């Protein structure tokens, strides 16, 4: 349950992303700046933390040991995750994006067969391909149904352009984030702690964000003071605190696909936090009855995931091949 609670707390800080990205879009800020500034601001905070913990040397060695896959999966986890989310903020309210984003839970469960674990048996090491945890998949589908329900009231008003620009980018991000995160855990095999991993992945993607910033400067000009301040808040809240907490939670259960799916399911609470945040900060109206029913369904799915994890912890037995 510890990993579950850490995941929920991370979701609270993640929700800031949806609220402030929407706020920046409504005030005319470019999504290119919203995306790149977040990662620029993350760097000094993370360097200070890792340096204080005397972890810069080991982090550098890990980055240089496998630079190509390190770069590829960092780009998948951070660039293909965050750039689409900031882009889509111009086409949908934050709470609706947060709801669609919950498809990352389904994505996380379906990605299991792409990974293998090494177990020690009396005959030596054996590689076992992970299987889709059916119980977790069933519960995850409950959350998926909730996501579909909250989208129904908007279905009639969503034209093809809004669908392509406001929903498909979120679907891309929903698969990219768990894929990149899990591949990095698989690549590093625990050689870096959470802070080192987040910093290393951020540094690996900085060249890409510089490209975003240069393009933004040439096409829309420099960011406003308001966008810089809000991007700083997003960087600290979502980029440093939320990302670190989420990676810590997934690190705790990385070899158990059922528990990993449950931790990833905690991100469904972002929807609730984003909805409340937009009502308080952006003064949006309370969503309609059908959307609220969808929210309740998502909460029920989240509760089922937590219950399943608690039962698994209580009755866990060794099931290793001989």
From TrEMBL:
Classification of source organism: Bacteria, Bacillati, Bacillota, Bacilli, Bacillales
Pfam families membership: EmrE
Keyword field contains Membrane: yes
Keywords, ordered alphabetically: Membrane, Transmembrane, Transmembrane helix
Ranges annotated as spanning the membrane: 31-52, 64-83, 95-120, 132-152, 158-177, 198-218, 230-250, 271-304
Protein name: Multidrug resistance efflux transporter family protein
Lineage top rank: taxon: Bacteria
């Amino acid at each position: 349950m510890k990993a579950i609670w850490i995941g929920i707390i991370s979701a609270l800080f993640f929700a800031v992303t949806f609220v402030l990205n929407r706020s920046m879009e409504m005030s005319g800020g470019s999504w290119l700046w919203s995306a790149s500034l977040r990662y620029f601001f993350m760097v000094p905070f993370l360097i200070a933390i890792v340096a204080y913990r005397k972890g810069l040397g080991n982090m550098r060695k890990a980055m240089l040991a496998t630079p190509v896959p390190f770069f590829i999966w960092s780009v998948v986890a951070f660039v293909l995750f965050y750039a689409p989310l900031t882009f889509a903020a111009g086409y949908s309210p934050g709470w609706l994006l947060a709801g669609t984003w919950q498809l990352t839970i389904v994505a996380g469960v379906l990605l299991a067969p792409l990974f293998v674990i090494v177990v020690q048996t009396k005959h030596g090491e054996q590689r076992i391909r992970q299987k889709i945890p059916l119980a977790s998949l069933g519960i995850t589908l409950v959350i998926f149904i909730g996501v579909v329900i909250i989208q129904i009231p908007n279905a009639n008003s969503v034209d093809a352009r809004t669908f392509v620009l406001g929903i498909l980018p979120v679907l891309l991000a929903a698969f990219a984030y768990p894929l990149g995160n899990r591949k990095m855990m698989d690549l590093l095999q625990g050689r870096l702690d959470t802070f080192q991993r987040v910093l290393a992945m951020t540094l690996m993607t900085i060249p890409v964000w510089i490209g975003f910033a240069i393009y933004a400067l040439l096409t829309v000009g420099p960011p406003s003071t308001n966008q810089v301040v809000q991007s700083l808040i997003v960087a600290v809240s979502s980029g440093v605190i939320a990302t670190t907490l989420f990676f810590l939670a997934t690190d705790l259960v990385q070899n158990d696909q059922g528990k990993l799916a449950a931790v990833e399911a905690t991100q469904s609470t972002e929807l609730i936090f984003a909805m409340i945040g937009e009502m308080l900060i952006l003064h949006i109206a309370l969503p309609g009855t059908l959307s609220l029913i969808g929210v309740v369904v998502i909460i029920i799915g989240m509760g089922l995931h937590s219950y399943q994890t608690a039962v698994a912890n209580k009755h866990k037995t060794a099931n290793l091949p001989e």
